[in-house]
Design a protein that fits this description.
Distance between the termini: 85 Å
Strand order of the largest sheet: 4-3-2-1-5
Mean pLDDT: 88
Order of helices and strands: HHHEEEEHE
Radius of gyration: 25 Å
Number of domains: 1
Largest sheet: 5 strands, antiparallel
Number of strands: 5
Length: 206
């Protein structure tokens, strides 16, 4: 039997460069898709966090309705609530949220949870990813409760926006009734879909 010899030929430099170029092109095409999926996942987390803030505030409002207290409730019914930070203070001081939990649920996206002590009285403004409205007990369920602070009510997100979180990728809204949604950048003016502001249209900044 004749010996069959296999000739082994190494890749040339040009062939290696072609392979590397193809890999680089494939990677560049997939990165935007991966980044977009990550942002959508983060917006889903933001909606979940805002829902937890809403649940805590709803519990406060139910307790206020039962007890007649004016120390806690919906933001528009409590004189001390004038910002996102003072809303967190109301929820923490009245035991509707623990400081560490509050720091987590008031954050979203590129705004990371603040490092707060176990005896902290509020979440600092820098760690709050949302704007809130002065919604009251008498406002309907479709009234907007809060939204991510990259959104200005009634306006579409501008391309290249540097506001956080999520820049111009989209925004999150939660209504008084407990239903929330992730919106596309071009849906900012669709206020019939987003929900109405309360009678007092003051927006509570973080």
């Amino acid at each position: 039997m004749k010996n069959i010899k296999r000739s082994l030929q190494a890749f040339t430099l040009i062939e290696l460069l072609v392979v590397i170029s193809i890999i680089a092109i494939l990677a560049s095409l997939s990165l935007p898709a991966i980044g977009g999926a990550l942002t959508r996942a983060q917006m889903g987390t933001a909606l979940s966090n805002l829902r937890q803030v809403h649940i805590a505030t709803t519990t406060a409002s139910l307790d206020a309705f039962t007890t007649g207290s004016t120390n806690f409730g919906w933001p528009g019914n409590v004189a001390s609530v004038s910002s996102g930070s003072t809303l967190s203070a109301m929820l923490i001081s009245n035991k509707f949220l623990q400081p560490g939990d509050a720091a987590k649920v008031f954050a979203a996206g590129e705004i990371k949870p603040s490092q707060v002590a176990t005896n902290a009285t509020e979440v600092p403004a820098a760690g709050i990813a949302f704007r809130f409205t002065k919604v009251t007990e008498s406002d309907p369920g479709t009234t907007v409760f809060g939204f991510t602070k990259n959104y200005t009510y009634g306006e579409n997100l501008e391309d290249g926006s540097t506001n956080l979180p999520f820049r111009s990728a989209g925004f999150v809204v939660m209504r008084k009734g407990g239903d929330g949604q992730v919106f596309k950048p071009s849906q900012g003016t669709e206020t019939n879909l987003i929900g109405a502001l309360p009678t007092d249209q003051t927006i509570l900044e973080p």
